[in-house]
Amino acid sequence: MSETTYTELRERAATLDAVDPLAPQRKLFALDDGVYLDGNSLGALPLHVPARVQDVLTRQWGELRIRSWGESGWWTAPERIGDRIAPLVGAAAGQIVVGDSTSVNVFKAVVAATRLASLAGEGRDEILVDATTFPTDGYIAASAARLTGHRIVPVAPADVPGVLGDRTAAVLLNQVDFRTGRLHDLPGLTAAVHAAGAIAVWDLCHSAGALPVGLDEHGVDLAVGCTYKYLNGGPGSPAYLYVAERHQAAFDSPLPGWNSHVDPFGMTPDYAPADGSVRGRVGTPDIVSMLTLEAALDVWDGVSVDTVRAKSLALTDFFLECVEAYVPQGRVVSVTPAAHAERGSQVALRCAEAEAVMRRLIERGVVGDLRRPDVLRFGFTPLYVGFADAERAARVLAEVLEETQQA
Ligand SMILES: Cc1ncc(COP(=O)(O)O)c(C=O)c1O
Q: What is the mean pLDDT of residues 178-207?
């Protein structure tokens, strides 16, 4: 790498950081002087959260005890926090409920999707599933298919339109691929699924909080997502389920627990579902995790997802440019699409020595992660990653590759 290139990229990074409208957000997070590029796995801790959780434990639980179900708003937290997430994924209020893991919500959504599809007529016995999916979605969809008498058809998202037909009941897709960072065409694929008379279920784990999703605008039927990545809800924070308002009355949950009953304290033997997003609830919510998430969502106050998206694309462009400039040709190959319309908020680089390289990067304070066997993943969280971070990560990567080759 030439000294001029290095100086030029460092200066560019400084200029871009100086005009970045999201730069002030960084000080809201607990970060050290390293470069944290793993927010697509576990988002960083917003600094104000521990005090809020302390209050949940010592005052709400410790002093108010059982009264907190009402007085501290514990009982209604799943819907209330769902409404906080709603604008981040382009949903009007009343359609998102928080709770359970993404895996459990995939189960609810896929089974409910087949039940919705069967209302329109018989003969729809196939569930199309993203062949490149995060594994849990595939495992759960397969079990849901066995339980409901459907057949799984694995299909690459881009090939979905050619495979859809009058046997398709539901289609389960990821908006952003967890391995490559590829962004799939949610509006186009949802429209194609609808044209075939089927139900579209989207997994938003790698897109919510990183880019505009537009659930209502694009007519998505059902969606699920986690909150511990770009939404910074904390380790194991609860996931969410979106049920479009037009489907709520017919949404038939395969896990009809007492929390989704119209009269949960009636304790009746017969199940009668509540109206609205509450219908997606199951059992007693994990209040401590849930209220940790609620506090963490404060960092989104006044932040526009469009601004986040613009910075995310600028950051990933700049990182790719720095990698190109610093890393010797052929040592890494980006598997993340170059086209903005096809890119999420991470860069995935294929690298022969990926395992050793990621270990050394982390030792030097550049934290990404590895998807075996050979993919280095770098997640760019626009709320707290800057352009100087992107430049430094690429520079350290080049140094580490140099050493790894020599070893
Ligand atoms: C795309 C996707 N779906 C589902 C999951 C699994 O979520 P959970 O462990 O909350 O069930 C993950 C986890 O990283 C994921 O990335």
A: 98
